[in-house]
Amino acid sequence: MNSIITTDAWSYKLFEQYLNTFFRELKVNLEKHIIPAQDSPLFTLYAERPDTLYFAYTFNASNTIVYGAVQHLSTTGYHRYQRGFVLQNLNDNTFDSLTDPKKLVKLITDELNSLFKDKNQNKNLYSDIVNSIENTKFFLENKPSQTATKALSGFQATEQGMLYGHPFHVTSKANLGFSKEDMKKYSPELGASFQLHYFAIHSSLIQKLVSEKQPSHCIEDEVLETAKERLQDNLANYELMPTHPWQANFLLQHSSLKKYLDNQDVIYLGVLGQTVWPTSSVRTVWLPQSNLFLKLSIDVRITSFIRNNPMDEMERAIDASKIIINHKINEQYPDLVILPELEAKTVKIPELESSFGILYRAGLTPEVLENTRMLGGLVEENENHEIPLLSIIQQAAPNQNLQSKDAKEFITFWWKQYVKVSLIPLIELFANKGISVEAHMQNSLMEFKNGYPHRLILRDMEGISIVPEMIEDDSSISEDSTVWFSQKDAWIFLKYYLVINHIAHLISAIARVTAIEESELWQATRLTLTQENFSAKGQQYRDLLINSLTLPIKANMLNTLYHSGGNPIWIEVENPIYKYRGAEALCPLQPTQQTNYKTLAENRVMSQLLEALIFENTFKYEFSKGQIKFYVSDTVFYTCAAKRHFSFKRIKLDPSSLVRSDITLGTETRPSLKTLLADLKNIIEADPVKWQNFNDELNLTYIKHAQTLSQAPAQPLRTLPYLEQEARITNAHLYHPSFKSRIGFDLKENQKYAPELSEGFTVQWVATHNSLCKLVLSETINLEQLYKQHFSEKDLQAINDQLKEQNVDFKDYILTPIHPWQWDKIIELYYQDAISNQLIIPLDIEGPTYLPQQSIRTLSNISDISALSLKLAMNLVNTSTSRVLAPHTVQNAAKMSDWLYNIVEQDHILEKQRKPVILREIGGLSANQQIALPVQYGALACIWRESIYSYLKEGESATPVTGLMQVDTDQKPLIDEWIQEYGIEFWLEKLLSNAYLPIMHILWCHGLALESHAQNMVLIHKNGLPVKAALKDFHDGIRFSRHLLREPNLLPNLQDAPKEHAKINPNSFLETHSPNELRDFTQDALWFVNLAELAIFLNEHYDFDEIKFWTMLRTIINQHKEAHPEFAERYELFNFTDDTIDIEQLASRRFLPEIRLRVQTTPNPLSLIKEIEYE
Known about the structure:
Layout: H1 12-25, E1 34-35, H2 43-46, E2 53-59, E3 64-72, E4 80-89, E5 94-97, H3 101-115, H4 125-142, H5 146-151, H6 154-159, E6 175-176, H7 180-186, E7 194-202, E8 206-210, H8 221-231, E9 238-243, H9 245-252, H10 255-262, E10 266-278, E11 284-287, E12 292-295, E13 298-302, E14 305-307, H11 311-326, H12 329-332, E15 336-338, E16 341-347, H13 353-356, E17 358-362, H14 366-370, E18 372-374, H15 375-378, H16 388-396, H17 408-421, H18 423-433, E19 435-436, E20 444-449, E21 452-458, E22 465-466, H19 487-513, H20 518-531, H21 536-546, E23 550-554, H22 556-562, E24 570-574, H23 576-579, E25 589-591, H24 597-615, E26 622-624, E27 627-631, E28 636-644, E29 651-653, E30 659-662, E31 667-669, H25 673-680, H26 688-709, E32 711-713, H27 722-728, H28 747-753, E33 764-769, E34 773-777, H29 783-788, H30 793-805, E35 813-818, H31 820-830, H32 832-836, E36 840-842, E37 850-852, E38 858-861, E39 869-872, E40 877-878, E41 881-882, H33 887-905, E42 917-918, E43 921-927, E44 941-945, E45 957-960, H34 976-982, H35 984-1006, ...
Parallel strand pairs: 15-21, 42-48
Antiparallel strand pairs: 1-2, 2-3, 3-4, 4-5, 6-13, 7-9, 7-10, 8-16, 10-11, 11-12, 12-17, 13-14, 16-17, 18-20, 19-22, 20-21, 23-24, 25-32, 26-27, 27-28, 28-29, 28-30, 30-31, 33-35, 33-36, 34-43, 37-38, 38-39, 39-44, 40-41, 43-44, 45-47, 46-49, 47-48, 50-51
Helix pairs in contact: 1-3, 3-4, 17-20, 18-19, 18-21, 24-26, 34-35, 35-37, 35-38
């Protein structure tokens, strides 16, 4: 195409307004429409700005793509765009610059007409928006000069400075009724001021409502004197009624008024009194001599409504004002001022009742007014992207450069103060009084002191909603008053007007013009809410707000489309207070109350070691009458209380009863781990070197487990959110003896990086040259979208600046996360050549904060809990396995995930409500050069995984399946409250049916075996009742046989494991030809180290019969078989009720000589149930 023409300074803001409104109300996630820079026709225009994100959105009704560039991508939809837009006509594949906002509006309205053609629509939507466009242009062309604006008071300047209006209202400046001359006379945007017109209305025609017992004196003396001169002694028979000048002319021409004028029941007095000026609402004026607001009627349609005052609306406003006054709200809440309506007045002429209606509103003293600003006017940007609020913030820190990173701490402090005087008192007001205020930006004023927020001032009582059950009875208010609302509706209104319309707008505005990010301000908001003291009721609503997944938004555009303002359409958007957290929001750790944590740790290691060795038949033992006994020499033996469980005939020990008896010495002692290992060496056939390594692992497990038990969260795990449960669960592997060896971590590193102890950390970001690495992404994401998961536009610009200083090009590198431990111990040492040659460039950028998951190397993003998790290569050994990431598995990760995700998504047999969530690994990066040193194998790699939070629905929570077997900090099972509420059988049936059965179904139906041990599963539940499972870790956790796949044509092109890898890890492979291997792979993980542990746990803590447990599972399997006879052959092929299962020997393989896959055949619990039934 020819050169791109950009929008002009005035209209580009309208592009922002209309695109943002359209995207938000149609729930278009703009991040999903980000495209690679080189795919955008705008790339050449902004090529020097790597912080620019490019998007493409298709308007299907017009068969047109709109290309744009984003400067600021907002979490709540307040995006800022670059000024260039391009249209691609798909009919003839032509490109053209888009500069006329009317053309964009036509695309939007045509799209809406097409999407909602079955509904009754406003046929004038396009013309209404065009009217708003023309008026905006008129205001900008005729706005007062800077000199005239500076002459206004700060308060008046903000009231009259909103040239664009509501940023999410497509007809924000539309009006039908005002001519251009009227607009010049009466528009606040043009700095208007004028005198009011007065009517004298006979008292018999007056309707008046007052909020105070002693009515206020609202008419100024000068007007009264003039009226007295005109009416003489008749003044006592009349009420004076002020009107807007435009409305006075409207009324004088109204046929319904003529007879009243002729009879002198209504007398027009003309222009009288002080000069007033209109506030942002146009019809409300400020009376500077009276220090009052006056809400007038004008029969002009502004935005979507005629702006007169119907009686029912005035009654609601006065009723609300009475409650504010009678309950002394302003006295009870010192950080808050609510301006009540003092008097409402109109005429008893039905045709003119709404048109004459006025309300006098309490005002502010000149001293308060001097430091008070209307918030909507503070955040409207001018053509230079400046906002008046910035100058106020600057007053609080005159020496700070607010665009500098150094200012972040100050801005955060300033914002916390704002939250304290706005959000917190209004939550308390609702919680304790049931009063929900319409605290949108034009109704909200803020009094500042020395640049800091001091007191929130609210106006317009017509928007107040009150819950009658939540406030003390007020007999002065009728039961059928329109001020009364349900708790549900009033809470929705408060969340929308206060959080979305007010707080979100301010956060976005501040983030646009300073160095701080929106996410950081949302984190500060959450932190302030959780740290400040609330009343008991206030805390309840605080928690409701911060734990709600979504927030309501009134869809102004759709409501205009449908004329549904009286019964508005609401949509739900992601709650940023829930989404953005940060390390400071974590539940603090404190020293454990269990002073014997070292003993507990040592007991755990010894018992788990012996249980594994006994199960794997590594030495001879006797089991009788609840005790196990084994000899380690002719004169030394061990005894321990024990129980043989039904599940796999596992023997579980009571480690506190473990005794070492020496016949020669005649002693009975409690053995230490060191002594036990020395004794076991005498009776176990082991490779000496491997046995010593195994000893080291076990000792490290003891030391590090003791360290993790020394601290615990200040609250029980069951009360914590998923991301903290995922970290703080202390169980680890319940069978593997070296369950917490973490070889490579010293104790300081374990404190910093272990999930149970970490307080969160940032990773080391580097730029890795394209020639050094290979990146494979899911079909659902591109590189730009991946970067946006970690970095803001400001971050990307900072990274680009750093790379420029190194004289390299951003596009030649991939931004790569490295675990800080891995950077210090491995990469910085063994990749020195790559660093010296600028193939790896360390970056000075923080990025998000992360909290490790149970697997240690997988990190949850706690800055944004719905963002991607990182699985990072670590040359750390835990549970006897190196935690590097084999390159072939990294390259397969996204392909495997997409494959499995699509299979599950298209499965029409599994009910939608219990289809497992597939937490996709959407990208994998690994070094692709020949390694020079063994230590480099798999050392530089990352896998990106979806967050469970991106899948949760309102009312749902998540808990790691490992948590189902966890004893909480209060020494009760984590699941105890669920068991007590639902009953163990009902709860267990839901768990087995909804979480476990679908994994078996995937093997039966599709031929895919999943390694679904407990750590790879997350339970999604509603108040503890199981809904479904989320599954994860697929890059090396799926096995299949090509000829057994239901749809082999869908199998992606996967990379095989190299021979060298198979030698190191013989159990790591993808394909097999044996259906039994697929079944055993599933059952080993799902049966042995998952379900069996749960069955034993329920037996130990609730005395629940294990036979009953497995019988319930078999019944659920049989029900599935009966429901789907079409899979009869597959049920036999992958028979979960076969007599035996092959189980991997996780302990023995650590010390036996050969490196090979070691399994043992063990009876299948489901098979044993059949035998019991047949006996």
